[in-house]
Amino acid sequence: MSSTDKFILHWLDQSRSHRILWLFETLGLNYELKIYKRTKEFRAPKELEKVHPLGKSPVIEIIREGKEPLLLAETGHIIQYVVENYDTTNILKTSTPEEKELVDYYLHFTEASLQGFLVALLVGQIAQTKAPWGTGFLVKLVTSGINSQYFQPELLKSLKFLESQLAKKSTNQYFVGNKLTGADVILSFPIIDNLFSNPARASTLSGGEVNLVRDFPNLHAWTENVLKLPSYVKTNEIIDKKLGSKL
Amino acid sequence: MSSTDKFILHWLDQSRSHRILWLFETLGLNYELKIYKRTKEFRAPKELEKVHPLGKSPVIEIIREGKEPLLLAETGHIIQYVVENYDTTNILKTSTPEEKELVDYYLHFTEASLQGFLVALLVGQIAQTKAPWGTGFLVKLVTSGINSQYFQPELLKSLKFLESQLAKKSTNQYFVGNKLTGADVILSFPIIDNLFSNPARASTLSGGEVNLVRDFPNLHAWTENVLKLPSYVKTNEIIDKKLGSKL
Questions:
Q1: Inter-chain contact A105–B143, Cβ cutoff 8 Å?
Q2: From A141's CA, which of B4, B28, B38, B212 has a CA 20 to 30 Å away?
Q3: Closest CA to A184 of A194, A169, A172, A198
Q4: B108 interaction partners in chain A (CB closer than 8 Å)
């Protein structure tokens, strides 16, 4: 790593890439933003496959002097690698091995467990409105059945788990220790963008019986704290300006 | 870490925990195996929630002299932590930072991307056979529609990506470098257990049009290589003996 290294973030609207922008802003990295917009079917555009064969976002490139550019994919991996190699002033780094272990856990848990249930619920929701292979009513009946049997209980279990983790800490402002870490960065998308900032979606995804603010007071306090962090505010401003509209 | 540290693996049949057993066997760790069996609805039993609030497997405990036991969850995180701290003779460790970066990528990719599509497809498949909220025919119609629109193309894209990664290497026996690493360990469950060792499930999950051996020759060669590794053979023998039947 070197202080002359430059970054490119391939950013897709309404995607997991939002927090990588926040990561770059937090660490003050020298980055360029390439913006992609979803198709009307809410999918990533084909151009992203030219960057990485899986065609997803976030993908980042690290441009290094005298070395091949490094292409990194998978949100948890990107956060882990960038913090390890480019957080030179310990803005996000933890101070004990125990805290580092816990951040690593959240980097895996968020994408491998929590986000999977949200994607499955979201796919079912999109299927209900697009349904080209049948009627919306039937699709709704079946996806609601599958969701209530499997994905919704799993999502709620994960949210209760996160709530309990914050509740047992002396501060509910951050997930690990008393400071911002990669754990807060990775959890910001599913908790804030997918749920707290989108009450209509949260209600549909959770089956309509959950009141996030009432049922998850610690997650709510954490959300309120993140939303007012200067780096997070600036991240949203950058995107509002680039896209010409609120997310 | 210390050579006197002991491990407990909470192992669930037909689950992601199988490869953690393989990890422990590969590293020659001093471990105890606690076996859990799925309910008739193919869910994890409630007892697992006493071990970890999310009630999933794998979960491991590391019993350390003079310290609190350490509870670890999430497959990618467990592999990363155990290799980093307990692979004292470099059986799985990589030799360059580039290889380490690539293993870390696969630890995230496998659970955050590949496994998510497989779980969604599997849930749809179970819903078709259990369907208490409607008829199997309707559930099959709708889940088939959703699967063919979203989850199957994503699964195939991931498999093609893995195939291309092996194809460009000088050996298709391992995913990173010329030796066994955590990447092979984590990929063994989705690729071998879920797909190559279960042609009927593979055919259903992929929509019936895929012939794994014909379409993915490098993944097939890698599978054949892993299946004959002594540590992998021994892992399967241990489970066959404990469960009294083939997996």
A1: no
A2: B38
A3: A172
A4: 74-77, 80, 107-108, 111-112
Return the number of CB contacts < 8 Å for A and B. 144
Question: What's the CA gap between B11 and B37, in Å, rounded?
Answer: 9
| CA angle (A59, A222, A175) in 5-degree steps | 65
Question: What one-letter code names the amino acid at A90?
Answer: N
In A, which residues are within 8 Å of B111 by CB distance? 108, 111-112
DSSP assignment of A97-118: HHHHHHHHHHHHHIIIIIHHHH
ipTM given for this complex: 0.91
Nearest to A112 among B70, B74, B141 (CB): B74
Q: Of the CATH numbers 3.40.190.10, 1.20.140.150, 3.30.420.40, 1.20.1050.10, which one belongs to the domain with range A97-243? A: 1.20.1050.10
Instruction: Find, among B73, B69, B91, the residue nearest to B15 by Cα.
Output: B73
Distance CA B189, CA B216 (A): 17
C-alpha of A189 from chain center: 3
Closest-CA residue of chain B to A111: B112
Give B7-51 pLDDT, tens digit per residue: 999 999 888 899 999 999 999 999 999 999 998 878 899 999 999
Same fold yes or no, A6-86 and A97-243: no
B134-B138-B144 Cα angle (round to 5): 130
Residue with token string 């390439």: A34
Mean pLDDT of the residues in chain B: 88
CA gap A62, A74 in Å, rounded: 14
Torsion over CA of B37, B41, B47 and B49, rounded to 10 degrees? 120
Could you state, in order of their start, the residue ranges of all structural domains in chain A? 6-86, 97-243
Residue B57's nearest CA partner among B72, B68, B67 is B72
Nearest-CB residue to A134 (from B124, B142, B161): B142
pLDDT (tens digit per residue) in B94-115? 999 999 999 999 999 999 989 8
